[in-house]
């Protein structure tokens, strides 16, 4: 593996993106378009492609209603990319706190999903063509599947620790699907970079020196990041 | 509703298929092709279309590997239709008891899924393009999702009473989908009847007089039917 694995020499520990230098097979190298700033592009190679791949595969585009669950590192890239694809984008978030930021990113609508807010769930029944669930905590999938229209799909890109109870009725009504997706291939990642270049999309980040990672980490755990931390590798020198 | 509901007069109880006569809107009437025997065709209008619809929607056909979980009223129709569509058909059944019957219906392969038979599940990892789960009891969906190849789909057509725990990893690996499907529309039901007529497909049945339903019912509960009971409405006179 890239991080904390073992190099081909059988003994050196791998350092992945924390390396000063790296030798890579040319088939696994990507071209960063000139108009994309390096720091704000780094998260595209994970959060960007993780959202771009299912949005393309399940055909987000004009006339499609896309819901993004969670507005973190993944979710905020989903909003930007789905908006650039001309889909109608709704954010389903715990509270309305990030509403203004989401709208600046291109969200058309914003809904709170706290358990007290039954209204959002009533109003949105059968509404979405595609929902992407970016959360890595367990949520009630049945509740969200009911928001899908005929042949709608909910795609899970986060990895909750525990299994989630699912009722067959949530799928059988309206021929809905629950699917999963994980990052994307090299060709598709290059297509994503070129797409972001064309639409001037990059990640919202907080740039930090590597010496500050121990201060940053508790904020990652608390989901208190707008919207990705990026380490300036110059600070490694 | 068709059965045990209330007629438009607001008081008469509906009798559905147990009626001697029925008045129907012409848009909801189907044509039974001449070469299909009435008794063996009756179950096509439920079990037949329930299997035909997802097999068509998820494109079962030449080169596709289709798994059918359960060989009952639904499953045996799934085998016949998927075979007529030129897909490779495997039955995943509790035991090997029905193996010979399944092969006569067109099954290419037959696997036992009892918990002792880990071998089937190891051997079939990533094998199927499409699995249709006809069971109305809870099974471990994760175990079966692992049998799907890239972009494979498992379709649930039965309705288990309880929710089933599902792990995100089962979906995320290989971009798998878990979907649901329920019977089909009138146009598609006519297409199914015409398809069955062309391929000489009908349901395997046990025909019975309505006076015997109380004897038949315990056998339905025990899944001891080959493969659908059909009531001869002549016996109503």
Assembly type of the shown chains? Answer: homodimer
CATH topology of the domain at 44-180 in chain A: Rossmann fold
Q: Rg of chain A from C-alpha positions?
A: 19 Å
The biggest beta sheet of chain A is recorded as: 6 strands, parallel
Which term fits the overall shape of chain A? globular
| Terminal CA distance of chain A | 24 Å
CATH class label of the domain at 44-180 in chain A:
Alpha Beta
CATH architectural category of the domain at 44-180 in chain A: 3-Layer(aba) Sandwich
CATH superfamily of the domain at 44-180 in chain A: NAD(P)-binding Rossmann-like Domain
State the largest interface: A-B, 28 and 28 residues
Number of helices of chain A: 9
| H-E order of chain A | EEHHEHEHEHEHEEHEHEHE
Fraction of residues in β-strands of chain A:
15-25%
Give a count of the beta strands of chain A, DSSP E runs of length 2 or more. 11
Structural class of chain A: alpha/beta
Task: Give the low-pLDDT segments of chain A.
Answer: none
> Can you give the helix content of chain A as a percent range?
25-40%
């Amino acid at each position: 593996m890239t991080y904390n694995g073992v190099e081909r020499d059988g003994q050196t520990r791998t350092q992945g993106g924390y390396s000063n230098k790296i030798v890579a097979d040319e088939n696994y190298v990507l071209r960063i378009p000139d108009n994309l700033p390096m720091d704000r592009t780094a998260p595209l190679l994970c959060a960007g492609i993780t959202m771009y791949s299912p949005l393309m595969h399940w055909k987000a585009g004009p006339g499609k209603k896309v819901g993004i669950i969670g507005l973190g590192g993944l979710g905020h890239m989903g909003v930007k990319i789905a908006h650039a694809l001309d889909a109608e984008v709704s954010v389903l978030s715990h509270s309305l706190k990030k509403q203004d930021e989401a709208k600046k990113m291109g969200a058309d609508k914003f809904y709170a999903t706290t358990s007290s807010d039954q209204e959002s769930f009533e109003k949105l029944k059968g509404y979405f063509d595609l929902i992407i669930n970016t959360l890595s905590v367990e949520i009630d999938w049945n509740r969200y599947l009911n928001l899908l229209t005929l042949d709608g799909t909910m795609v899970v890109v986060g990895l909750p620790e525990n299994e989630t109870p699912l009722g067959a009725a949530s799928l059988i009504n309206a021929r809905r699907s629950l699917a999963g997706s994980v990052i994307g291939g090299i060709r598709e990642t290059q297509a994503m970079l070129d797409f972001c270049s064309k639409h001037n999309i990059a990640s919202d980040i907080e740039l930090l020196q590597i010496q500050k990672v121990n201060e940053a980490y508790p904020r990652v755990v608390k989901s208190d990041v707008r919207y990705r931390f990026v380490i300036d590798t110059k600070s490694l020198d």
